[in-house]
Amino acid sequence: MKSCYVRVDRLTGVVEMEAPEGIKAGDHVVTEIDKGLCLGVVTTEPTDVTKDGLKKITAKATDDEIAQYSALKEKEGYALSLCKQKVKEMNLPMKLLWAEYLFGGSKLLFYFVSENRVDFRELVKELAKEFKIRIELRQVGVRDEAKIIGGLGNCGNVCCCRKFLNNFSIVSIKMVKEQSLALNPNKISGICGRLMCCLAYEYEMYVGYKKDFPKMGKRVTTPQGEGKVVKHNALSSTITVELDDGKEATLPSKDVKKI
Q: Cα separation of 91 and 258, whole Å?
């Protein structure tokens, strides 16, 4: 079986899919994902894989299908503008992010964020009356908001969720502490206000490097005397010890022994 990666849309991102014969990078293809049929662009050449459960590329899109879909995409701006107007008129506590026509014009989706549950039944009726199409409103989280809108992270690059991440992994404060990073919200939070996704990238590496390190605060013995561990540096494989005489010594981890 061959698979390739397909860029679907701003929220779904890039997805690995089973590729039929004749598909190549750059092709526009019709794909079926959870929300329905979408038009995507193949970003990699197909390669042999042994994975199971991959979503399938339905077919290569025709020139007419691509043109029709492009015409639908041009209407999304108006759809979003009108929906925002209706939300304002109805005084609904929601922030609209994006309007999306599915392939073939089978459905019009609106994505929004809100701190609370929103009763948008009347809004759906008004929109269905206006657009004569099936309407769906989807409430997403602040991390999804960042993925849809995009922006620059603390590193100066486009935030990972907008650029390449498909799924959000769990990021915890434990990962921050394991990497000896300062607990400064401004430095460890992304534009979404949550812990940065990149904190998970090297976490397992740090855990592996430090698996034999004595824990912080533990009593140890060193060539310079006994003391307690006050700092780890996984990348240099060193441990800082506060000695019993009040001095600090930074030593290779192999020279620091547990008592």
A: 63
How far from chain centre, in Å, is Cα 28? 24
> What would the pLDDT profile of 52-90 be if each residue is shown by its tens digit?
889 999 999 999 999 999 999 999 999 999 999 999 999
**Distance (Å, whole) CA 149 – CA 108:** 19
Which amino acid is located at 203 in the chain?
A: Y
Q: Which two tokens stand for residue 7?
A: 């860029």
Please report, as a single letter, which amino acid is at residue 19. Answer: A
> Residue 80, exposed/middle/buried by CB under 10 A (0-12, 13-18, 19+)?
middle
Beta bridge partners of 209: none
- Cβ-count burial of 117 within 10 angstroms (0-12 exposed, 13-18 middle, 19+ buried)? exposed
Output the CA–CA distances (angstroms, integers) from residue 154 to 11, 24, 144, 171, 198, in the order listed: 21, 36, 18, 17, 11
pTM, two decimals, is 0.77
The tokens for 72 are 């639908």
Alpha helices in the chain (DSSP H): 63-74, 76-90, 121-131, 142-149, 160-163, 173-178, 185-188, 203-209
Number of helical (H) and strand (E) elements in the chain, helices listed first: 8, 14
Adjacent-strand bridge partners of 128: none
* Pairing of β 238-243 and β 225-233: antiparallel
Q: Burial, 106: exposed, middle or buried (Cβ in 10 Å; 0-12, 13-18, 19+)?
A: exposed
Place of tokens 């003391």: 227
Angle 76-90/63-74 helices, nearest 10 degrees? 30
* End-to-end C-alpha distance for the chain, whole angstroms: 56
